[in-house]
Design a protein that fits this description.
Elements: H1 16-35, H2 37-40, H3 47-66, E1 86-88, E2 95-97, H4 106-135
Antiparallel strand pairs: 1-2
Helix pairs in contact: 1-3, 1-4
């Protein structure tokens, strides 16, 4: 049995979509950092290999340098957050978040909207780069 230690995830539960992304990029990280393909293989062999090597390096840089710089607006220092309260949904056994004063917590509301926008943008970027990684998977060997 093979075990893949995913360094970019904390211990505990993780949804499959997130796990898939991190597992795939951990394989790329292991390839670059452990197998050292730039030292053991001549990537200038032909155009296909040159382009693949360029893509491998680009994806590695994005995963290890660019992506970790993402900042969630809700983590902004000094952001005043409303108290989290639940209220029962009438006629059900369900609960929902109780409304809060949007004027009093205007900065928080703006941060929530920004976070929702960035989450969508980042998910699209993650998916696009995961597709790019899959496209060059045949080159991830030494």
């Amino acid at each position: 049995m093979k075990v893949l230690k995913i360094n970019s995830l904390e211990k505990g539960f993780c949804d499959g979509d997130y796990l898939l992304l991190h597992a795939a990029f951990q394989i790329l990280v292991n390839f670059i950092e452990k197998e050292k393909p730039g030292k053991v293989f001549d990537w200038s062999y032909d155009k296909e290999h040159r382009e693949a090597w360029k893509e491998i390096q680009s994806l590695y840089k994005w995963w290890s340098k660019v992506r970790p710089t993402r900042k969630n607006p809700l983590d902004e220092k000094g952001l005043k957050k409303p108290p989290f309260r639940l209220k029962e949904v009438p006629g059900t056994n369900l609960f929902q978040q109780a409304p809060y004063d949007k004027k009093k917590y205007a900065r928080y509301k703006k941060a929530v909207n920004r976070e929702m926008f960035l989450d969508k943008k980042w998910r699209e970027e993650d998916t696009s780069n995961l597709h790019r990684l899959i496209d060059i998977r045949d080159f991830l060997w030494t």
